[in-house]
Amino acid sequence: MEFSAAVVPGHAPLPAVSPGLRGALHRCGPGTPPLRARVRDVLREWIVEGRLAPGMRLYEQDVAAALGISRVPIREAVRLLESEGYVEVRGRQVRVRSLDPVSVAHLFDVCETLEALAARQAARSITPAGARRLRELLEIGRAGLAGGGRPVSDGVNMSLHEEISRLAANEVLDGVLAPLRGRVQCLLRHSDDGHRIFDEHAAITEAVATGDAERAAELAARHMRATGQEILANLPG
Asked: Does the global pTM surpass 0.85?
């Protein structure tokens, strides 16, 4: 599998790459993740932040030149991104996954069930330290939203979901949810009701923190359903 090597006039430019990022990609040593994983993380961040738009075609030579590395780790990173659902590979073409309404609906159907399971299991095993951490994240999100920092608030919201998964202490569930959450995060820019999301997270946090497993599961499912419906209504086209 590889990107097209042809130079295509007029294709969209990649985001600017800082010398610091290039240096980090060239760094190696004990405990350093493989280069393919670091490249995957860079491309995934660009996709999540919307700097690589849905449907945008990626070219191997452009990515390699931008990051200052060879093409081999680019190809390996693309395989990882494809397995996580961020890109589509058709023959020699690689594109950022498009916002297909059916796929988005299916994504939220699955997340509704899995996030409810995570909330239920987290509530059943909650500790005082875990409850305190959830409430701390909630307050950070509240401050970000009050200050107009929606991107900050979105990041905290995802951290809250991740913390609930961690508290559930289910490695299989966490492994399945992690890439799905990344795809959900890509879609949050199509949600314009940050206050609704925060209020729902506050209710979920309280249910988990107080050990109310069934209410936590119900609220988590309702939250994912409402978010999915809002995003579907706001998708372009």
From this structure: no
